[in-house]
Amino acid sequence: MLHPPALRPGSPNHMLNVHLRINDATTGKPTPVRIRISGLDGSHYAPLGRFAEFATGRNEDVGGQLKLGAERWFYIDGACEVPLPASVPLRVQVIKGPEYTPLDETVTLGAGQITLRFAIVRWVDSRADGWVSVDTRCHFIPPHAALLEAQAEDVNVVNVLATPLPMLTFDGNTCIETPNLLAFSGQTPALERDGYSVVVNTLNTHAVLGKVGLLHSHRPIFPLAFGQPYDTDDWSICDWCDQCHRKGGLTVWVGAFEPLGGVVGGEGLVAAILGKIDAIEVTNETRKVPLLPWVYRLWNAGVLTPLVGASGKESNKVRVGSVRTYVRREEPHPPTPFPNREGGENPAPPSLREGKGTGGLGLLPNSIRSGRTFVTAGPLLTLDRDGNRLRAAIRAREEFARVEIVANGEVIASGESETEAFIESGRVAARCTTPGASFAHTSPIAVGSPSRKTEAVAALRTLVEQTREWIDTQGLFANPKRKQSLLDYCDEAIRRLEG
């Protein structure tokens, strides 16, 4: 049978089923990656079983593909078959997280060519220095898809957080769904392969008082939401945090200082001041209020809550690990002390030195609580301390990346690639910026005995009083004791602030 002109062998538009394989240059074995194959006319070519057009809305078939602007990417396990035209230039792009050099090549298939082989090169290996990369929050993506994307984006641990979601059904009613709740795994991986794992935990929410990611808890913590439209306000974020800690978990303040119902800070701030929040989440999501100025005020008020990074992925428009956490899991050998949040030093515990006790997070929760983290959208950032002398350094593919040391909210040293500073006392962190969208920031450490800044305490007290007023005048309570409990938390937070 004769081929139609568009499919005739040797014609420019003749399509071939091409076997594509991407190897890790170090191991020589196929490795999961994110790929994009496009033509000079802007056309996209999808692997068999995929489609160039796919859903990109919130909670719409999340996982396995990614749309960034006009670009369409696909996740593969290291090999796939792709229908491609012969005799025309094709652009092949391959990405595998910030520690691999992206591959970008132009190829033209010869007559009858049905294989393409590429190798992707790791330019730095943070794991050799004891770091674990973690995405602390994704939603709606099934665990199997999350594991594939974790491997392809080189994220060691991805946390999928189940959270209630009102859904309009076909019969016109609204019901509450909680995707992935039945896959809850808590302190053990729901899935794991070749050093990568997916853990399913929960995001617990209130429309005004705030949101907390409850990680590494051995059981789900209910209710997953309170307040309208779910119920009355007879619960509290502080109670969620207490339950999570009793279950061996880690509490993360999500959407910190973002206005909710006209309230900034909410009970999430109260919980942070009371020491019930273990970490503050950093994302690249659009915000109404900049995060860092308020985080610096919190640190300057003496509350040295560490930072963690999350993609907040809810759709195929956000990639796993777009913002991620790096956690130092084990000390270089021989082990050395590391600075704790109070400014002293803690010896690395045996479980940390040996890389044990990691649980479902793939890391020790205590490593996050002690501030052994940095968040990043690309650059690898370190802050080392030798007494009162500090040194910050970055490793990044981007040129002109700049690193800064920040003490008490003010830049005290800066430079390209690395910088140093000497300080008598202060709350110190390092940060990095690039001309593009990449950034990185470490958690804070205390040097000496820094005093609290009066203006920071006053600003935070105003927010707590705003939250207290909402509870007192607008909260809907069926149980007066629950209302009083929330008011008492606010009062205690004010007393703590004033120290």
Describe the fold and architecture:
The structure is a single chain. This protein has about 500 residues and is of the alpha+beta class. It has two domains: about 15-120, Immunoglobulin-like; about 125-370 and about 445, TIM Barrel, CATH 3.20.20. It has helices at about 145-150, 235-245, 265-275, 290-300, 350-355, 365-370, 455-475, 480-499; strands at about 15-25, 35-40, 65-70, 70-75, 80-85, 90-95, 100, 105-110, 115-120, 130-140, 155-160, 165-170, 175, 190-195, 195-205, 210-215, 250-255, 280, 305-310, 325-330, 340, 345, 375, 380-385, 390-395, 400-405, 410-415, 420, 425-435, 440, 445. The strands form six sheets. The chain has a 15-stranded mixed beta sheet that branches. A five-stranded antiparallel beta sheet has the order 3-4-2-6-8. Helix 3 crosses helix 8. The protein starts with 14 loop residues before the first strand and ends with a helix. The model is unreliable at about 1-10 and about 330-360 (pLDDT under 50).
What structural class is derived from the secondary structure elements?
A: alpha+beta
Q: What is the class of the largest domain in the CATH system? A: Alpha Beta
Report the end-to-end length measured between terminal Cα atoms: 87 Å
- Biggest sheet overview: 15 strands, mixed
CATH architecture level-2 label of the largest domain: Alpha-Beta Barrel
Shape assignment: globular
- Give the radius of gyration: 25 Å
**Counting H and I runs of at least 4 residues, what is the number of helices?**
8
* Average of pLDDT: 90
The CATH topology of the largest domain: TIM Barrel
Poorly predicted parts: 1-12, 332-360
Helix content, binned percent = 10-25%
Beta-strand level of the residues, as a percent range? 25-35%
Return the domain count: 2
Number of E-state strands: 31
